[in-house]
Amino acid sequence: MCLDAIITCLSSWKLWIRPLAILCYAVAALVFVPLFLVNSLKEGFTKRDQEILVAGIFVWIAIPLSLWEIILHVINYTKPRLQKHVIRVLWMVPIYAINAWLGLIYPKHSVYVDSLRECYEAYVIYNFMKYLLNYLNMEMDLEASLELKPQVKHIFPLCCLPDWEMGREFVHICKHGILQYTVVRPLTTAISFLCKTLDVYGDGQFKGTVAFPYLLAVNNMSQFVAMYCLVMFYKANIAELRPMRPLPKFLCIKAVVFFSFFQGVMIDLLVYSGAISTSGKTDDGLGLSTRLQDFLICIEMCLAAIAHHYSFSYEPYARPDYRTQNCCGAFLAMWDISDVQRDISEHLGIVGSSISRRFRGRSMYTIPRGNDEYAGLVSPRTTISEPDTIYQDECDELIVNYGTVGPRQSNNKTQNPRIEE
Protein backbone atom coordinates (compact mmCIF):
# COMPACT_ATOMS: atom_id res chain seq x y z
CA MET A 1 0.00 0.00 0.00
CA CYS A 2 2.76 2.41 0.93
CA LEU A 3 4.67 1.65 -2.28
CA ASP A 4 1.54 2.16 -4.37
CA ALA A 5 0.93 5.52 -2.69
CA ILE A 6 4.51 6.62 -3.44
CA ILE A 7 4.22 5.58 -7.09
CA THR A 8 0.89 7.39 -7.41
CA CYS A 9 2.39 10.52 -5.86
CA LEU A 10 5.39 10.47 -8.19
CA SER A 11 3.19 9.91 -11.23
CA SER A 12 1.22 13.07 -10.39
CA TRP A 13 4.35 15.19 -9.97
CA LYS A 14 2.95 18.01 -12.10
CA LEU A 15 0.49 18.80 -9.30
CA TRP A 16 3.02 19.17 -6.49
CA ILE A 17 6.31 20.19 -8.12
CA ARG A 18 5.52 23.92 -8.28
CA PRO A 19 4.13 24.23 -4.71
CA LEU A 20 7.15 22.27 -3.45
CA ALA A 21 9.57 24.59 -5.25
CA ILE A 22 7.83 27.66 -3.81
CA LEU A 23 7.85 26.17 -0.30
CA CYS A 24 11.56 25.27 -0.42
CA TYR A 25 12.48 28.70 -1.68
CA ALA A 26 10.40 30.47 0.96
CA VAL A 27 11.92 28.36 3.76
CA ALA A 28 15.44 29.07 2.48
CA ALA A 29 14.75 32.82 2.36
CA LEU A 30 13.23 32.85 5.86
CA VAL A 31 16.23 30.99 7.28
CA PHE A 32 19.27 32.47 5.53
CA VAL A 33 18.27 36.14 5.27
CA PRO A 34 17.75 36.64 9.05
CA LEU A 35 20.96 34.73 9.80
CA PHE A 36 22.92 36.96 7.42
CA LEU A 37 21.45 40.15 8.88
CA VAL A 38 22.15 39.08 12.47
CA ASN A 39 25.73 38.13 11.62
CA SER A 40 26.28 41.39 9.72
CA LEU A 41 24.96 43.53 12.57
CA LYS A 42 27.34 41.83 14.98
CA GLU A 43 30.29 42.82 12.77
CA GLY A 44 29.08 46.39 12.25
CA PHE A 45 27.42 45.98 8.82
CA THR A 46 30.44 46.95 6.75
CA LYS A 47 30.51 48.13 3.14
CA ARG A 48 31.20 44.55 2.07
CA ASP A 49 28.02 43.41 3.87
CA GLN A 50 26.03 46.09 2.07
CA GLU A 51 27.34 44.88 -1.28
CA ILE A 52 26.45 41.27 -0.43
CA LEU A 53 22.95 42.25 0.70
CA VAL A 54 22.14 44.37 -2.37
CA ALA A 55 23.58 41.76 -4.75
CA GLY A 56 21.75 39.00 -2.86
CA ILE A 57 18.39 40.72 -3.37
CA PHE A 58 18.85 40.62 -7.15
CA VAL A 59 20.15 37.05 -7.02
CA TRP A 60 17.21 35.82 -4.96
CA ILE A 61 14.85 37.41 -7.48
CA ALA A 62 16.66 36.00 -10.52
CA ILE A 63 16.90 32.40 -9.32
CA PRO A 64 13.18 31.67 -8.82
CA LEU A 65 12.31 33.30 -12.17
CA SER A 66 14.73 31.00 -13.99
CA LEU A 67 13.86 27.89 -11.98
CA TRP A 68 10.17 28.53 -12.60
CA GLU A 69 10.75 28.64 -16.36
CA ILE A 70 12.86 25.47 -16.16
CA ILE A 71 10.12 23.65 -14.25
CA LEU A 72 7.53 24.72 -16.81
CA HIS A 73 9.73 23.36 -19.61
CA VAL A 74 10.09 20.06 -17.73
CA ILE A 75 6.32 19.88 -17.22
CA ASN A 76 5.74 20.59 -20.93
CA TYR A 77 8.66 18.51 -22.21
CA THR A 78 7.13 17.78 -25.62
CA LYS A 79 10.12 18.42 -27.91
CA PRO A 80 13.24 16.95 -26.26
CA ARG A 81 15.51 17.73 -29.23
CA LEU A 82 14.91 21.45 -28.66
CA GLN A 83 13.95 21.80 -25.01
CA LYS A 84 16.96 19.87 -23.75
CA HIS A 85 19.19 22.65 -25.04
CA VAL A 86 16.79 25.42 -24.00
CA ILE A 87 16.83 24.19 -20.39
CA ARG A 88 20.63 24.10 -20.41
CA VAL A 89 20.66 27.71 -21.55
CA LEU A 90 18.17 28.67 -18.85
CA TRP A 91 20.44 27.17 -16.17
CA MET A 92 22.95 29.87 -17.08
CA VAL A 93 21.20 32.50 -14.93
CA PRO A 94 21.17 30.51 -11.65
CA ILE A 95 24.75 29.35 -12.17
CA TYR A 96 26.04 32.83 -13.01
CA ALA A 97 24.08 34.49 -10.20
CA ILE A 98 25.06 32.03 -7.48
CA ASN A 99 28.65 32.03 -8.74
CA ALA A 100 28.98 35.82 -8.55
CA TRP A 101 27.27 36.04 -5.15
CA LEU A 102 29.49 33.34 -3.67
CA GLY A 103 32.46 35.24 -5.06
CA LEU A 104 31.40 38.24 -2.96
CA ILE A 105 30.77 36.16 0.16
CA TYR A 106 33.87 33.96 -0.05
CA PRO A 107 36.47 36.02 -1.94
CA LYS A 108 39.36 33.69 -1.15
CA HIS A 109 37.59 30.85 -2.95
CA SER A 110 36.31 32.88 -5.89
CA VAL A 111 38.85 31.22 -8.21
CA TYR A 112 36.98 27.92 -7.91
CA VAL A 113 33.49 29.24 -8.59
CA ASP A 114 34.73 31.56 -11.35
CA SER A 115 36.19 28.54 -13.13
CA LEU A 116 32.76 26.91 -13.14
CA ARG A 117 31.17 30.01 -14.66
CA GLU A 118 33.83 30.34 -17.33
CA CYS A 119 33.38 26.71 -18.43
CA TYR A 120 29.60 26.93 -18.40
CA GLU A 121 29.54 29.94 -20.71
CA ALA A 122 31.25 27.83 -23.38
CA TYR A 123 28.66 25.12 -22.71
CA VAL A 124 25.88 27.67 -23.25
CA ILE A 125 27.26 28.66 -26.66
CA TYR A 126 27.43 24.99 -27.67
CA ASN A 127 23.83 24.34 -26.62
CA PHE A 128 22.52 27.39 -28.40
CA MET A 129 24.24 26.24 -31.57
CA LYS A 130 22.73 22.73 -31.18
CA TYR A 131 19.32 24.28 -30.56
CA LEU A 132 19.51 26.15 -33.88
CA LEU A 133 20.86 23.14 -35.80
CA ASN A 134 18.21 20.78 -34.43
CA TYR A 135 15.45 23.28 -35.15
CA LEU A 136 16.52 23.69 -38.76
CA ASN A 137 17.22 19.99 -39.39
CA MET A 138 13.77 19.10 -38.08
CA GLU A 139 12.23 21.27 -40.79
CA MET A 140 14.52 20.69 -43.79
CA ASP A 141 17.78 19.36 -45.16
CA LEU A 142 19.88 22.29 -43.95
CA GLU A 143 22.88 21.73 -46.23
CA ALA A 144 20.73 21.30 -49.35
CA SER A 145 18.74 24.40 -48.44
CA LEU A 146 21.90 26.49 -48.07
CA GLU A 147 23.19 25.31 -51.46
CA LEU A 148 20.18 26.94 -53.11
CA LYS A 149 20.77 30.28 -51.42
CA PRO A 150 22.90 33.19 -52.67
CA GLN A 151 26.37 33.49 -51.23
CA VAL A 152 26.51 35.00 -47.74
CA LYS A 153 29.25 37.63 -47.63
CA HIS A 154 31.54 38.24 -44.69
CA ILE A 155 30.82 41.09 -42.30
CA PHE A 156 33.10 44.09 -41.77
CA PRO A 157 35.97 44.09 -40.86
CA LEU A 158 36.44 40.53 -42.21
CA CYS A 159 34.96 41.23 -45.65
CA CYS A 160 38.35 40.47 -47.25
CA LEU A 161 38.15 36.78 -46.27
CA PRO A 162 37.27 34.23 -48.98
CA ASP A 163 33.62 33.24 -49.07
CA TRP A 164 32.49 30.10 -47.30
CA GLU A 165 30.90 27.86 -49.90
CA MET A 166 27.18 27.57 -49.21
CA GLY A 167 26.11 24.12 -48.08
CA ARG A 168 28.25 21.61 -46.22
CA GLU A 169 31.30 23.85 -45.97
CA PHE A 170 29.28 26.73 -44.52
CA VAL A 171 27.61 24.53 -41.89
CA HIS A 172 30.89 22.88 -40.91
CA ILE A 173 32.83 26.13 -40.54
CA CYS A 174 30.07 27.72 -38.45
CA LYS A 175 29.63 24.64 -36.30
CA HIS A 176 33.31 24.04 -35.64
CA GLY A 177 34.02 27.75 -35.27
CA ILE A 178 31.62 27.71 -32.33
CA LEU A 179 32.77 24.33 -31.01
CA GLN A 180 36.38 25.50 -30.75
CA TYR A 181 35.31 27.86 -27.95
CA THR A 182 33.84 24.89 -26.08
CA VAL A 183 37.31 23.34 -26.14
CA VAL A 184 39.48 26.45 -25.73
CA ARG A 185 37.62 28.00 -22.80
CA PRO A 186 37.96 25.05 -20.37
CA LEU A 187 41.62 24.69 -21.37
CA THR A 188 42.44 28.34 -20.66
CA THR A 189 40.46 28.13 -17.41
CA ALA A 190 42.52 25.14 -16.31
CA ILE A 191 45.74 26.96 -17.26
CA SER A 192 44.67 30.09 -15.39
CA PHE A 193 43.83 28.00 -12.33
CA LEU A 194 47.29 26.41 -12.48
CA CYS A 195 48.93 29.83 -12.90
CA LYS A 196 47.05 31.17 -9.89
CA THR A 197 48.25 28.23 -7.85
CA LEU A 198 51.85 28.99 -8.90
CA ASP A 199 51.27 32.73 -8.26
CA VAL A 200 52.15 33.75 -11.84
CA TYR A 201 48.65 34.58 -13.09
CA GLY A 202 48.63 38.32 -12.27
CA ASP A 203 44.86 38.88 -12.24
CA GLY A 204 44.06 42.27 -13.82
CA GLN A 205 47.72 43.04 -14.59
CA PHE A 206 48.68 43.78 -18.19
CA LYS A 207 52.35 42.87 -17.90
CA GLY A 208 54.50 40.61 -20.02
CA THR A 209 55.76 38.69 -16.99
CA VAL A 210 52.36 37.29 -15.97
CA ALA A 211 49.93 34.92 -17.71
CA PHE A 212 46.81 37.11 -17.49
CA PRO A 213 47.20 39.18 -20.70
CA TYR A 214 48.12 36.13 -22.81
CA LEU A 215 45.18 34.05 -21.62
CA LEU A 216 42.93 37.07 -22.05
CA ALA A 217 44.04 37.45 -25.67
CA VAL A 218 43.42 33.75 -26.40
CA ASN A 219 39.96 33.85 -24.80
CA ASN A 220 39.13 37.08 -26.60
CA MET A 221 40.11 35.68 -30.00
CA SER A 222 38.34 32.36 -29.42
CA GLN A 223 35.17 34.09 -28.27
CA PHE A 224 35.26 36.48 -31.21
CA VAL A 225 35.48 33.55 -33.65
CA ALA A 226 32.54 31.82 -31.94
CA MET A 227 30.44 34.97 -31.97
CA TYR A 228 31.28 35.70 -35.61
CA CYS A 229 30.34 32.16 -36.71
CA LEU A 230 27.08 32.45 -34.77
CA VAL A 231 26.25 35.73 -36.51
CA MET A 232 27.11 34.29 -39.94
CA PHE A 233 24.92 31.27 -39.28
CA TYR A 234 22.06 33.52 -38.22
CA LYS A 235 22.55 35.71 -41.29
CA ALA A 236 22.37 32.70 -43.63
CA ASN A 237 19.23 31.20 -42.02
CA ILE A 238 17.34 34.27 -40.89
CA ALA A 239 14.24 33.45 -42.95
CA GLU A 240 14.02 29.83 -41.75
CA LEU A 241 14.60 30.86 -38.12
CA ARG A 242 11.97 33.60 -38.14
CA PRO A 243 9.09 31.40 -36.82
CA MET A 244 10.97 30.78 -33.55
CA ARG A 245 11.72 34.49 -33.00
CA PRO A 246 15.51 34.19 -33.08
CA LEU A 247 16.53 37.81 -32.48
CA PRO A 248 15.59 37.97 -28.75
CA LYS A 249 17.33 34.64 -28.20
CA PHE A 250 20.50 35.81 -29.96
CA LEU A 251 20.50 39.03 -27.93
CA CYS A 252 20.07 37.12 -24.66
CA ILE A 253 23.01 34.82 -25.41
CA LYS A 254 25.27 37.63 -26.55
CA ALA A 255 24.29 39.92 -23.69
CA VAL A 256 24.99 37.35 -20.98
CA VAL A 257 27.99 35.48 -22.37
CA PHE A 258 29.85 37.98 -24.54
CA PHE A 259 28.90 41.19 -22.76
CA SER A 260 29.86 39.83 -19.34
CA PHE A 261 33.26 38.82 -20.71
CA PHE A 262 34.03 42.20 -22.30
CA GLN A 263 32.60 43.95 -19.25
CA GLY A 264 35.18 42.16 -17.11
CA VAL A 265 37.95 43.15 -19.52
CA MET A 266 36.89 46.80 -19.44
CA ILE A 267 36.76 46.80 -15.63
CA ASP A 268 40.25 45.30 -15.48
CA LEU A 269 41.55 47.97 -17.86
CA LEU A 270 39.91 50.81 -15.93
CA VAL A 271 41.24 49.57 -12.61
CA TYR A 272 44.72 48.90 -14.01
CA SER A 273 44.90 52.35 -15.65
CA GLY A 274 43.73 54.08 -12.47
CA ALA A 275 40.46 55.37 -13.93
CA ILE A 276 38.76 53.53 -11.06
CA SER A 277 40.76 54.30 -7.94
CA THR A 278 41.80 51.43 -5.70
CA SER A 279 44.50 50.69 -3.19
CA GLY A 280 45.20 47.38 -4.90
CA LYS A 281 43.34 44.98 -2.63
CA THR A 282 40.43 45.45 -0.32
CA ASP A 283 40.47 44.51 3.33
CA ASP A 284 38.87 41.16 2.58
CA GLY A 285 41.51 40.21 0.00
CA LEU A 286 39.25 40.55 -3.03
CA GLY A 287 40.48 42.68 -5.91
CA LEU A 288 38.35 45.69 -6.79
CA SER A 289 37.91 44.61 -10.43
CA THR A 290 36.72 41.14 -9.40
CA ARG A 291 34.37 42.59 -6.80
CA LEU A 292 32.83 45.02 -9.28
CA GLN A 293 32.40 42.28 -11.89
CA ASP A 294 30.67 39.94 -9.42
CA PHE A 295 28.42 42.71 -8.12
CA LEU A 296 27.35 43.77 -11.62
CA ILE A 297 26.71 40.17 -12.69
CA CYS A 298 24.37 39.68 -9.72
CA ILE A 299 22.30 42.65 -10.91
CA GLU A 300 22.47 41.70 -14.59
CA MET A 301 21.30 38.15 -13.94
CA CYS A 302 18.01 39.50 -12.61
CA LEU A 303 17.50 41.32 -15.92
CA ALA A 304 18.64 38.24 -17.85
CA ALA A 305 16.10 36.05 -16.01
CA ILE A 306 13.30 38.37 -17.10
CA ALA A 307 14.59 38.38 -20.69
CA HIS A 308 14.88 34.58 -20.73
CA HIS A 309 11.30 34.26 -19.49
CA TYR A 310 10.06 35.92 -22.69
CA SER A 311 12.73 34.74 -25.14
CA PHE A 312 12.85 31.05 -24.14
CA SER A 313 9.26 30.64 -23.02
CA TYR A 314 7.70 27.19 -22.52
CA GLU A 315 4.44 28.26 -24.19
CA PRO A 316 5.33 27.13 -27.77
CA TYR A 317 5.87 23.62 -26.38
CA ALA A 318 2.75 23.41 -24.20
CA ARG A 319 0.42 20.66 -25.46
CA PRO A 320 -2.33 19.60 -23.03
CA ASP A 321 -3.14 16.53 -25.13
CA TYR A 322 0.43 15.20 -24.94
CA ARG A 323 1.11 12.01 -23.02
CA THR A 324 2.47 12.62 -19.53
CA GLN A 325 6.05 11.64 -18.87
CA ASN A 326 7.44 10.94 -15.42
CA CYS A 327 9.72 13.60 -13.97
CA CYS A 328 12.72 11.27 -13.70
CA GLY A 329 12.73 10.60 -17.44
CA ALA A 330 12.55 14.29 -18.31
CA PHE A 331 15.21 15.15 -15.74
CA LEU A 332 17.65 12.47 -16.92
CA ALA A 333 17.13 13.43 -20.57
CA MET A 334 17.87 17.04 -19.68
CA TRP A 335 21.25 16.16 -18.14
CA ASP A 336 22.36 13.63 -20.75
CA ILE A 337 25.64 15.05 -22.11
CA SER A 338 26.52 12.27 -24.54
CA ASP A 339 25.85 14.69 -27.39
CA VAL A 340 28.53 17.03 -26.03
CA GLN A 341 31.15 14.29 -25.94
CA ARG A 342 30.21 13.14 -29.43
CA ASP A 343 30.39 16.61 -30.97
CA ILE A 344 33.68 17.50 -29.27
CA SER A 345 35.17 14.23 -30.54
CA GLU A 346 33.89 15.12 -34.00
CA HIS A 347 35.39 18.61 -33.72
CA LEU A 348 38.80 17.29 -32.67
CA GLY A 349 38.68 14.72 -35.48
CA ILE A 350 37.79 17.36 -38.07
CA VAL A 351 40.53 19.71 -36.85
CA GLY A 352 43.13 16.94 -36.83
CA SER A 353 42.10 15.77 -40.30
CA SER A 354 42.17 19.33 -41.64
CA ILE A 355 45.65 19.98 -40.26
CA SER A 356 46.90 16.70 -41.73
CA ARG A 357 45.43 17.52 -45.13
CA ARG A 358 46.95 21.00 -45.15
CA PHE A 359 50.38 19.57 -44.39
CA ARG A 360 49.89 17.37 -47.46
CA GLY A 361 48.85 20.40 -49.52
CA ARG A 362 45.16 19.54 -49.77
CA SER A 363 42.24 21.62 -48.61
CA MET A 364 39.42 20.02 -46.67
CA TYR A 365 36.60 21.44 -48.78
CA THR A 366 38.05 21.59 -52.30
CA ILE A 367 37.34 17.96 -53.21
CA PRO A 368 35.03 17.70 -56.24
CA ARG A 369 31.49 17.00 -55.25
CA GLY A 370 31.22 13.91 -57.41
CA ASN A 371 34.24 12.37 -55.71
CA ASP A 372 33.82 13.49 -52.12
CA GLU A 373 35.48 11.25 -49.58
CA TYR A 374 33.67 13.18 -46.83
CA ALA A 375 30.24 12.37 -48.24
CA GLY A 376 29.32 10.47 -45.07
CA LEU A 377 30.73 12.94 -42.57
CA VAL A 378 27.45 14.55 -41.61
CA SER A 379 24.35 12.77 -42.87
CA PRO A 380 20.97 13.59 -41.36
CA ARG A 381 18.79 10.74 -40.29
CA THR A 382 15.75 10.04 -42.37
CA THR A 383 12.75 11.80 -40.92
CA ILE A 384 10.36 9.30 -39.38
CA SER A 385 6.78 10.07 -38.56
CA GLU A 386 6.37 9.24 -34.89
CA PRO A 387 3.18 9.03 -32.85
CA ASP A 388 2.55 11.67 -30.23
CA THR A 389 2.84 9.07 -27.49
CA ILE A 390 6.60 8.86 -27.97
CA TYR A 391 8.30 11.33 -25.68
CA GLN A 392 12.05 11.11 -26.00
CA ASP A 393 13.23 11.21 -29.60
CA GLU A 394 15.74 8.42 -30.12
CA CYS A 395 17.02 10.13 -33.29
CA ASP A 396 18.25 13.14 -31.39
CA GLU A 397 21.42 13.95 -33.25
CA LEU A 398 23.16 13.63 -36.59
CA ILE A 399 25.08 10.55 -37.64
CA VAL A 400 28.83 11.25 -37.63
CA ASN A 401 30.96 8.78 -39.58
CA TYR A 402 34.73 8.53 -39.20
CA GLY A 403 37.45 6.16 -40.23
CA THR A 404 37.79 4.30 -43.48
CA VAL A 405 35.56 5.40 -46.28
CA GLY A 406 33.20 2.62 -47.34
CA PRO A 407 32.46 1.45 -50.87
CA ARG A 408 31.60 4.22 -53.25
CA GLN A 409 27.91 4.77 -53.78
CA SER A 410 26.31 4.34 -57.13
CA ASN A 411 25.85 7.44 -59.25
CA ASN A 412 22.16 6.70 -59.59
CA LYS A 413 20.38 9.93 -58.67
CA THR A 414 17.57 8.05 -57.04
CA GLN A 415 20.06 6.71 -54.50
CA ASN A 416 22.16 9.80 -54.05
CA PRO A 417 20.27 12.85 -55.32
CA ARG A 418 22.34 15.99 -55.77
CA ILE A 419 21.47 19.52 -56.69
CA GLU A 420 22.92 20.56 -60.01
CA GLU A 421 24.78 23.82 -59.76
From TrEMBL:
Pfam families reported in the protein's UniProt record: Solute_trans_a (PF03619)
Segments passing through the bilayer: 20-40, 52-75, 87-106, 211-234, 255-275
Tree of life domain: Eukaryota
Keywords tagged on the record: Membrane, Transmembrane, Transmembrane helix
Subcellular localization(s) per the UniProt record: Membrane
Keyword Membrane in annotation: yes
Gene Ontology cellular component annotations, sorted alphabetically: membrane
Lipid bilayer topology: Multi-pass membrane protein
Protein name per Swiss-Prot or TrEMBL: Transmembrane protein 184C
Organism phylogeny: Eukaryota, Metazoa, Ecdysozoa, Arthropoda, Hexapoda
